[in-house]
Write a structure and sequence with these properties.
The complex is a heterodimer of chains A (398) and B (63). With 398 residues, chain A is an alpha/beta fold. Chain A contains ten helices and 26 strands. Chain B is α+β, with helices and mostly antiparallel strands. The chains are: A alpha/beta (398), B alpha+beta (63). The A-B interface holds A 17, 20-21, 24, 43, 45, 59, 61, 292-293, 296-297, 300, 318, 320, 322, 329, 331, 333, 372-373, 375-377, 379-380, 383 and B 11-15, 17-18, 21, 26-28, 30, 48-49, 52-53, 55, 57. Chain A: Its cofactor is FAD.
Chain lengths: 398, 63
Amino acid sequence: MPEQHLVVVGASLAGLRAVEAARRAGYEGEITLVGAEEHLPYDRPPLSKEFLTGEVEPNYFRDEESLRTELEVDLRLGTAASELRPTERTVVAGGAELAYTGLVIATGARARELPGTPALDGVYTLRGLDDARRVRAALGPGVRTVIVGAGFIGSEIASSARATGAEVTVLEAAPVPLAGAVGERMGAACAGLHQRNGTDVRCRATVAAIEGAGAVESVVLDDGTRLSADVVIVGIGAVPETRWLAGSGVALDDGVVCDETLNAGFPGVYAAGDIARWPNPLFGETMRLEHWTTAAEQGGLAARNAIDPEQARPCATVPYFWSDWYGSRIQFVGVPTADEVRVAAGDVSADSFLALYRRGEHVCGALGLNQRRPVMKLRALIAKHGTWQDALDVAAAG
Amino acid sequence: MRMHIDTDVCTGHGVCEGIRPDVFEVGDDGVVHLLTEEFTEDDRQDLEDAVDQCPTQALRLEG
């Protein structure tokens, strides 16, 4: 039997959980963890939240010593993978050829760029720690800040920027923010948080140009409106980081195409986290999720499946994401495409409500604003294909 | 096996409760509480999943 070698490409949450899960499962072969960034694995959600508002340190999940010694990982940071040859079971990273018996692809996603954006000082995207440090340094009292995109990242940045005293305008191309994530009605309800906190959100606002000489000076909309800006932050989503897989033979379709077990179509090759597109058996739908908990869950599962493919298990999960704005917590579980959305508790014009999403006779989703108690009860119910009445009962119990 | 919850770090996401509602519950105080401390080896994978998927890294499993 050949020497076992698990290669994990991508050293963020999914990659880290992959390594940890392999060791915990008793895997004794070699592990190599390849990460494009110089940083040890760190937690991303705080980067658009508290990290922007104060001198907080990055939250590293583990120190280098524990990775190298406790988990016995050959750690290769600042090293981007450039090629996969799945028929030869080889990954090329930093010029080195790594022969693997099992591979976890966890290269995540990169920030989507606004087409035609010029290279001006003061224009940022926010994805990694280095981005967050630059944005944090740029924000402050009176700084005229234009945020492009009123999705969750843009909204969190808006909330954080306001907390630093910046003057914030948020531009959203769609008629309603967050419609894809939570549906139109609830997207509008969430956007109410901005209004109640005095943040200027402009929908149906398309950027025609970002202008300046050296540094950004203004954002011009397609209706001719000109907004003066010291800082522009583009938060219009993320693109799966599949460029290094082009030509590898691995099927790509807005992510790495996987089966239920996260296998990417070649022996020993699995994907996890933002990059994985897979059929989720709980919903009978193919999904690609950019959620923290999905990365954690899939990282562990992909590694266990990669080291023991004969016992590979499917990834059956109820999506969960959260977002914190102005001290309020938005939580969503399940899927938003529904026959009916009903506000089951609270009031959508206030800072606490619970909405339930129905498909046929079953509950398929739930959105809570400052409703920590019932949301995860509903996640468990959705996982069991609970009925609509069961969900209404959970909501009524509070 | 012992499960520790750092209630200074927990913000009540309740991912653990979603995994094992018979073990964890988000309370009215907005943080997670243990409903039992009696665990067997059959619980281990679920408890490890709860630790791994805690968004604030508030859980720790010993033993």
